[in-house]
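Narrative summary of target 7.
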Amino acid sequence: MAYKKFIPCIYLYKGDAVKGFSDSTIIDTNPVALAKFYSDNYADELIVYDMSEGDAAHEEALDIVKAICSEAEIPVIGAGNVKRVEDIKKLLYAGCKKAALNYSKPGNIEITAEVSKRFGKEKIVACVTEADSITRNETLIDEYISEIILVKETCLKESISISRFPMIASVPEVSLDKILELLSNDNICGISGYAINENAKELLAVKALCQNNDITVNTFEPAIPWEAFKLNGDGHVTVVVQDYKTDEVLMVAYMNEEAYNTTLKTGKMTYYSRSREELWVKGETSGHFQYVKSLTADCDKDTILAKVSQIGAACHTGSHSCFFNEIMAKEYEETNPLKVFEQVFDVIKDRKIHPKEGSYTNYLFDKGIDKILKKLGEEATEIVIAAKNPNANEIKYEISDFLYHMMVLMAEKNITWEEITTELAQR
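Modeled conformation, tokenized:
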């Protein structure tokens, strides 16, 4: 099912998010946090325009784009400062799902076929400021472009009339009626620009309005109605809340029917406070919101498991989790792969910051990148040799040695496991 998409924009200029192409008013000094805000509030995609000037500023902007792609849990379209094939590659390698060619620049039109064949048509979009750019390049667009971004509102009406190609319409602040009118066009696959940026907090409400007008959008549709739950004596359902990234249990709370429906409507975890006897939106006073990632019922349908993106602390004490009062503990070896990697990596990073005499890790850091790479290469060779040995234990040891030296390299280059796992998840 093809959903109509709501796509905020971040205009990057001198490291800040500014208002637009012709307005350098700063709206946020932390573009990465802004991207996370858009993602948490259920935007479908994000367009990031690099408006930097000069090669050095462009490289700095790419670092921000990379951080945005890592933090935002929605597809990112990278745009701006594309002059050659290499620029497309850098945007895609930074984590962008798509990269945009500015069709007001002839050079971008010339490389369309090359970048599309190299990276795939589904990864290439075209930014258009005039409708005749579509008619002049109709064959090229049809063969090599997946979507068109109509950057200027002035070309909307004509572009819609001359082409059935999928288009993202960038519009200024407009009425909801105008948004509905645009989305009712078959070839308008999404809305972007200032109109979406300004309504970012209310996207689920806007999507609900679209649904009421028979426009298909991506929103929460519960598979289990409230009536299907088995309630406790107070008419509530127990909710166990987990961090969606780590599976750490954050808290336990309760929902009544109103809290359940409000959670589905807003995308923010909403509970029923038994002590205050009232509805409770988590984070409403503290700012520590919980944005819903998934809701799952247990086998008896008397408990809900909520996986959330937690902003700040879940516990009123300021702790990330409410579960910190240890009752008893039996020593055991951690076998969760990611936790083991993180634990070892934390020790390696600590050695870099706080050197320890006699530490082999510090020896590698002191010798520098060439020594680290030499050891990594040696360990890779040892894996190949061990793989020819029928004893499986030998290759286990060599892979462990390789992974350790790889983590030393990661620490040296300031690469995190989260970046690695994010990249793997995108493969």
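The CA atoms of residues 365 and 412 lie 7 Å apart.
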